[in-house]
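Course assignment 3, question 2. Fill in each field.
Student: A.L.
Task: Predict the tertiary structure for the chain below.
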Amino acid sequence: MSRPDGRTPEQLRPISFLPNVAPHASGSVLVSFGNTRVICAATIEEDVPRWMKAQKVKGGWVTAEYSMLPYSTLDRKARASSQGRIDGRSSEIQRLIGRALRAVIDLKKLGQRTIWLDCDVLQADGGTRTASITGGCVAIAIALNRLLGTGGLTDFPLRKLVTAISAGVYQGTPVLDLNYVEDKDATVDFNVVMTEDLEFVEVQGSGEEAVFSQSDMNAMLELSKSGIGELVALQRKAILEADSVGPTDLASLGDVFKTS
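Answer field:
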């Protein structure tokens, strides 16, 4: 079986993290999964949602917003503001991102703060939700490292890294990290969210007008675990290097947007 871009079934697309693309955010990164590019920006607010105050819930909160920019797809996608409401897909994705990150953050150690994670898709070629979770964790880690460095935190709230990857059955073969062409024609589609210790946070999977076997599911989960291990190594490297570079020079984005 030959994949459209020549990858082997277990091979990830080229992955990169470009930090500090949003200098006014507490932490930010441009994450690329092949031709899928998402800006993930974390902003720390010294306040908590009204419902937490009303219910006297201790600690802080982490929430996410997800948006595909109008020019991120081949056909222009209307902004949510012009529609008067967020569409169901975006709402479901941003809830997934929030759940994934809250699973690995000690909200009590965060204190009376809210982390807002904004995930804006610049270019979509499959896997925007998995890229958002993976890049979002990096952006939040950068933001928390900086807050710890200024004395705003005494204990680091991020217990472990979390990342996500897609898998599916394409032309009868389980494959990892589907691009748009593969995702569109896949008979089975999985999104797997795991911690750096390979613990499951969430698994979303369904047949696309098809069914799948136990062996197919096992193969997709094994592929996902191998991909998660590679992604975690890249996340660690990006977090460690973030404070060694200044704000990203927009001129340097040229190489990032070359077709992978």
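Instructor remarks: The longest helix spans residues 214-241. Residues 249-254 have pLDDT under 50 and may be disordered.
Grade: pending
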